[in-house]
Write a structure and sequence with these properties.
The structure holds 2 protein chains of 2 kinds. By secondary structure, chain A is α+β, with helices and mostly antiparallel strands. Chain A has one domain. Chain A is built from 3 helices and 2 strands. Chain A has a two-stranded parallel sheet. The N and C termini of chain A lie far apart (42 Å). By secondary structure, chain B is α+β, with helices and mostly antiparallel strands. Chain B starts with a helix and ends in a 12-residue tail after the last helix. The chains are: A alpha+beta, B alpha+beta. At the A-B interface, helix 3 of A face helix 14 of B.
Chain lengths: 53, 405
């Protein structure tokens, strides 16, 4: 754990892009992965998608 | 193991990619489109009533009624349009497609595209060029005269030419144009150049093209060159000059060819592939391979893009046209990475074009084995939209369109 905080921070950010933007503004190397919950978490749509597998 | 839906989608997309659309002829809509009749007006997008049509579509219907001689002025046309005596139907119900308002009237001449792999024909009207045109809902004398010239001179010359040529392979033209900076929907400079190059030798060989005196509207070429100031142009010169002046010359034939490809993928049991996307200026509609002729609709979006000076998005009509048939088969917005010049036009960067194309792989089932992008190591364009992926990933198809004042 100690080494983690002593080494240079390299971040992979998944989901909310604003987290990546904030880190970028502070000069941290960050790769942003666009991700959102399947069907935006809509249960009805998720049930329909399950039936269409 | 693939599910039965995945297998059906693979079958559908393979049929789509194997389709071989060839421009074989031109004919009058009422004579060549099966089911077309004198009081039937075809339009872009899903079904719609006269009352619910937007301004541009109503304008095109009004212009069409005057053009057909069914009404002598706007008032008469509006009354007739609302009377119930005119039938309206989506172009798609007749295996046709039309850009923007997409109005095809019974006497208009249409491209006939034959699928040499799967059989059957698809249709589209002649492209009128830019500016004041019927497809944007304009119908003054200038517009109607151009339509007359298109039907009475342009189309007959092209018909004779394509018959002499024995057909023009449109799929090959699209594939080549993607290597020349086109994406096949908004940018058609390369497709049109190739289209002209393919048909030009036959245009000059036509009997029609050699005529200089004929009883039909003329195209004024005096602004093209001083050469034509004191000299009557041949019909062939008029046709070639018009084709050269209009980068969209090839678009309608390309759209009908894309319709041919989409049609090949339609009607596959269990397939969730999108085989139609279209807008009528009010609604956006899709049809899916396994759900027959049923349309699924939602309100059409207002395009996000570059507006003419003095106009903004709140002035705009919601999107309209069948031209999104290009994206349905993996070109247009899906092939943006092939056409970085377009993003420059709206203030973007080539990276934006790559992002647009890359995102579309998320919602499609295949890489196209005919259409590819040199700058992406010749990767096939994202092809075959799976509605399940659109819902799961909440990524909507990228669609290119156009604006007109």
């Amino acid at each position: 754990m100690e080494t983690l905080f002593k080494s240079e921070l390299k971040v992979i950010n998944i989901g909310l892009e604003s987290f990546a933007e904030t880190l970028k503004e502070r000069g941290t190397e960050v790769i942003h992965v666009r991700w959102q919950p399947p069907a935006m978490g809509d249960e009805e749509l998720l049930n329909l998608l399950d039936k269409l597998k | 193991m693939m599910s039965k839906i995945d297998e059906a989608n693979q079958k559908a997309v393979e049929k789509m990619m194997k389709s071989r659309p060839v421009w074989v002829d031109i004919g009058r809509a009422r004579d060549v489109i099966p089911g077309m009749k004198d009081n039937l007006f075809l339009h872009a997008g899903p079904p719609i009533t006269w009352e619910k049509m937007s301004g541009p579509l109503k304008g095109a219907i009004i212009g069409g009624l005057i053009y057909e001689g069914k009404a002598k002025d706007v008032n008469e046309a509006e009354k007739l349009a609302a009377s119930g005596d005119v039938e309206y139907s989506p172009c798609h119900h007749y295996n046709a497609v039309g850009p923007m308002a997409g109005v095809i009237t019974p006497s208009q001449m249409v491209f006939i595209i034959e699928d040499k792999e799967w059989g059957g024909h698809c249709f589209s009207n002649m492209n009128e060029g830019y500016g004041k045109v019927l497809r944007y809902g304009a119908y003054d004398e200038e517009v109607l005269n151009r339509l007359r010239w298109l039907d009475e001179v342009y189309a007959p010359v092209l018909k004779e030419a394509v018959n002499l040529a024995g057909g023009i392979d449109i799929k090959t033209i699209i594939a080549q144009a993607l290597h020349m900076g086109d994406e096949g929907h908004n940018r058609n400079r390369a497709t049109t150049s190739l289209f002209i190059r393919s048909i030009a030798p036959f245009i000059v060989e036509t009997e029609w093209g050699k005529k200089t005196d004929y009883d039909a509207p003329r195209l004024d070429l005096s602004n093209v060159s001083g050469y034509f100031k004191d000299k009557k142009a041949t019909a062939a010169a008029e046709v070639l000059a018009f084709m050269h002046s209009n980068d969209l010359t090839s678009l309608n034939a390309i759209m009908a060819s894309c319709k041919s490809m989409a049609l090949a993928a339609h009607g596959i049991e269990n397939s969730t592939l999108v085989t139609t996307m279209a807008r009528n200026g009010t609604d956006f509609g899709i049809r899916v391979s396994s759900t027959g002729d049923k349309w699924f609709t939602a309100p059409a979006n207002v395009p996000d893009g570059l507006y003419f000076s003095g106009f903004k998005s709140s002035d705009a009509n919601p999107d309209i046209g069948d031209s999104v048939i290009t994206e349905t088969v993996g070109i247009g917005g899906f092939a943006m990475a092939a056409a970085p010049a377009i993003v420059n036009f709206i203030g973007g960067k080539p990276a934006d074009a790559f992002e647009a194309t890359n995102e579309m792989y998320e919602i499609t089932v295949s890489e196209n084995n005919n259409f590819n992008i040199p700058a992406m190591d010749f990767k096939g364009t994202p092809t075959g939209i799976d509605v399940r992926k659109v819902v799961e990933k909440n990524i909507v198809p990228r669609i290119n369109t156009g604006n007109s004042p």
